[in-house]
Specification:
The complex is a heterodimer of chains A (495) and B (221).
Chain A (H helix, E strand, L loop, with lengths): L1 H27 L5 H27 L1 H14 L3 H17 L2 H13 L6 H25 L3 H18 L2 H14 L4 H16 L4 H4 L3 H19 L20 H33 L3 H43 L4 H12 L4 H13 L6 H24 L5 H15 L5 H14 L2 H17 L5 H41 L1
Helix pairs in contact in A: 1-2, 1-14, 2-13, 3-9, 3-12, 4-6, 5-6, 5-8, 6-9, 6-11, 7-11, 8-11, 8-20, 9-15, 11-18, 12-13, 13-19, 14-16, 14-19, 15-16, 15-18, 16-19, 16-20, 17-20, 18-20, 19-20
Chain B lengths: L2 E3 L2 E9 L3 H9 L6 E9 L3 H6 L3 E12 L3 H12 L8 E6 L2 E4 L3 E4 L12 E9 L3 H10 L6 E8 L6 E2 L2 E2 L3 E10 H15 L8 E7 L9
Parallel strand pairs in B: 1-7
Antiparallel strand pairs in B: 2-4, 2-5, 3-4, 3-9, 6-7, 6-13, 8-12, 8-13, 9-12, 10-11
The chains are: A mainly alpha (495), B alpha+beta (221).
Chain lengths: 495, 221
């Protein structure tokens, strides 16, 4: 009982802060109608349980599969096979991501068929597959991460100069969708699987950076497609916001939808696992059944989590944003800051990442330190986004350009492991929780402020959330370096 | 080299993940010079967890060197802190050391006789140093006739190191190098490692040696 209770406590503590914040806001500044409030509380329960079940399942299922596949790929011992297998895995896992399929449909409609949804999906998946392949080859060849990241973001910058703001928004959103709750743990474990077999002095720094690279893929692919297809402007229709009615009604609608979506995400992993197991892993019956159970738990947990977030959290986010922007606009950045601080704790992939960090460094870099740093980083991201929504003169690139440039600069100054963790955190933090709750909050705020553009400002939040961890975690790396440096001085004195 | 008669004990506990740092902190009150933690996986005792599919759970293994006189007190404190007297909360155990080299004390040799009837031909040499220095240890050992060794990745602190971030202690990463050798060679291996890494200076690390009853699988030369 011990372990399960402990896990449940851990998960509750991660969902509790955001729930408490909303409850406090409801009874002080923003009156949320009773039905919506009850739906939110039910949502919080679903999210807590879902997160717990998902993490338990991810640990024995997805992470195991990723690690095994990484090891198998490494054992092929041929660089071209590593590339091809990495590409296929990245492509398939990504193409199955439900968020991306929804986005593809929207793009198809928005461009009036110039870019069919199917083409969009394929292009993004090629981008991801390509960068996963590069990431795996990098680990084996030992290319430095900071150079690869500088190069990828330099390409994005060049391509970004040509693209329209809407197209940029779409590419960033696709990047957020790529690093979904299933893909992230899988890609993390895949890289770790390769690096731990490779061994040697650089195992630690080799174990991270795959997710960061994979999230750059869609941006490059979409921007390149926009230029080739000569797309400058798109007409984008936002779905009108209709508040839910009743208490259980919205849940009844959400359950079948997200059960279906969760099946889509889990199927390619399951199929790949069964194929690999038949021809390569040949696992014991006990091990295999444990992994299959893990997949089942992640499926149930993910569905529960998504139902809670979408039926309970999203509209509250929207209403919060709208009412604060209308009645207390000055409080918007502060409340944004607080929301950002607590929301990242409830992001599923954050757990998987921090656990891997602890495992790779034998507990040297503790989970809590990473969590606190991420919390501060995301708080600044949401806060800055609110300022941008309120002040039309502030543009997204005023934050993104210096932010990414500073991150690139830092990546040559910090211990290499922090470069990998930082870029991975960028992809991890922009997961399903942020992409629904914080996005809805920003869209609500933008809707209430006449000078703001709902589409561009909304997506801008995701880009910000993906950027600030790069800076925050690398600054943490600098702190670690300073602390370790002190020890060196001490040693020197005693000599 | 100055020899001190003082009996040292290798104290170890296996605890749930995340509890190692607490044990390390507690042990410092008992004059333990350097504590080291490394990660492992352990079996799951509860049947229902097995049914759910969890085959193993993450564990932390904590080891430290303690003066024999203080051993009982440490046992008491650790047992109380982690409820080790109840099943399923972890285990603690200790083993006598042949001798150890650490700063301040120089070399201290145990005068304890090992029980058992086997003729002891082998010794196990543990060296704990800052991460990245394991290759130096292995090279030094090889130059003195060792045939190989195993490196375990861990974290830990000596009394020298104190760094705190957001109120959380940072424990530097360590390499634990384990070398099995014939008794007649052990002395020179230890000396070679000591010489290369200056273990006598504070903050350099620690070497300890244990008797081994039997060993198999080692290269013969």
């Amino acid at each position: 009982m011990n372990i399960l209770l402990q896990k449940l406590k851990e998960v509750s503590l991660s969902v509790l802060p955001v729930t408490a914040l909303v409850v406090v806001l409801r009874f002080t500044v923003i009156p949320i109608e009773t039905n919506m409030f009850i739906r939110f509380l039910i949502g919080a329960v679903c999210v807590t349980l879902g997160l717990g079940i998902f993490l338990f399942g991810a640990h024995i299922g997805i992470v195991e599969i990723g690690g095994l596949m990484g090891e198998t790929i490494f054992k092929t011992n041929k660089m071209y096979l590593v590339g091809i297998l990495g590409f296929i895995l990245g492509f398939l896992i990504n193409a199955a991501e439900p968020d991306l399929q929804i986005l593809a449909r929207q793009v198809g409609m928005a461009t009036g068929g110039v870019v069919p949804g199917f083409l969009f999906l394929i292009v993004v998946s090629i981008g991801v597959g390509f960068l996963v392949a590069i990431g795996l080859i990098r680990i084996i060849k030992g290319f430095p991460l900071n150079k690869i990241f500088s190069f990828s973001y330099f390409i994005i910058l060049i391509l970004g100069l040509w693209a329209s703001e809407e197209f940029l928004a779409f590419s960033v959103d696709a990047s957020g969708a790529t690093t979904g709750s299933m893909t992230t743990p899988f890609i993390l474990a895949l890289g770790y699987g390769v690096s731990r077999l490779k061994g040697g002095k650089t195992t630690e720094e080799d174990s991270f950076g795959m997710v960061g690279l994979a999230s750059a893929g869609p941006i490059i692919a979409i921007l390149a497609m926009g230029i080739i297809k000569k797309l400058k402007h798109m007409e984008v229709y936002m779905e009108a916001f209709t508040p839910n009615v009743g208490i259980l009604g919205p849940y009844m609608e959400a359950i079948p939808q997200f059960l279906k979506e969760s099946i889509y995400t889990i199927l390619p992993l399951l199929t790949l696992f069964l194929i690999f197991d038949k021809y390569r892993f040949k696992l014991s019956k006990k091990h295999k059944s444990s992994i299959l159970k893990g997949l089942l738990f992640s499926f149930i947990g993910l569905a529960l989590f998504l139902v809670g977030v979408n039926a309970g959290f999203m509209e509250v986010g929207r209403v919060l944003g709208e009412s604060i922007a209308s009645y207390h606009p000055r409080a918007l950045p502060i409340i944004g800051f607080l929301l950002g601080m607590v929301i990242v704790l409830a992001e599923p992939a954050v757990y998987v990442l921090t656990e891997q960090v602890e495992e790779v460094t034998a507990g040297h870099i503790k989970r809590k330190v990473i969590l606190v740093t991420l919390s501060i980083g995301i708080a600044f991201a949401v806060c800055a986004s609110m300022l941008r929504i309120m002040i039309p003169a502030l543009k997204l690139w005023h934050f993104l350009l210096p932010g990414f440039a500073f991150a690139a600069f830092l990546s040559y100054r910090v211990p290499p492991i922090f470069v990998g963790i930082a870029y991975d955190s960028g992809g991890v933090a922009s997961g399903p929780m942020t992409a629904t709750f914080i996005l809805a909050f920003a869209q609500g705020a933008a809707n209430a402020i006449p000078s703001a553009n709902v589409l561009i400002d909304g997506f801008g939040v995701i880009a910000m959330v993906a950027m600030t961890p790069l800076v925050a975690i690398q600054l943490l790396g600098i702190l670690f370096k300073i602390k370790a440096g002190k020890k060196e001085v001490l040693k020197h004195e005693t000599n | 080299m100055k020899q001190i008669k003082k009996n040292y004990i290798l104290f170890s506990c296996i605890l749930d993940f995340g509890k190692g740092s607490k044990a390390l902190e507690l042990s410092k009150d008992f004059g333990c010079y350097e504590g080291t933690i490394f990660l492992g996986r352990g079996t799951v005792s509860a049947d229902w967890l097995n049914i759910l599919g969890a085959l193993d759970v993450r564990k932390e293994i904590f080891i430290t060197i303690i003066d024999e006189k203080k051993e009982d007190e440490l046992y008491e404190t650790i047992t109380k802190q982690f409820n080790l007297d109840k099943p399923g909360h972890g285990v603690a155990f200790s083993m006598p050391l042949k001798y150890c080299i650490k700063p301040n004390d120089l070399k201290s040799e145990s005068n304890k006789e090992m029980r058992g009837v086997n003729k002891m031909n082998y010794e196990c040499i543990f060296t704990i140093v800052d991460k990245g220095l394991s290759e130096d240890v292995l090279e030094a050992a090889e130059s003195a006739g060792s045939t190989g060794g195993t490196v375990i990745h861990g974290r830990g602190t000596g009394t020298q190191e104190k760094a705190v971030l957001f109120n959380i202690k940072i424990e530097p990463e360590k390499d634990i190098v384990m070398i099995l050798s014939k008794t007649e060679k052990a002395e020179s291996i230890v000396d070679a490692i000591d010489k290369r890494l200056n273990i006598n200076e504070p903050g350099r690390g620690i070497i300890f040696v244990m008797d081994v009853n039997k060993a198999i699988g080692l290269y013969k030369d």
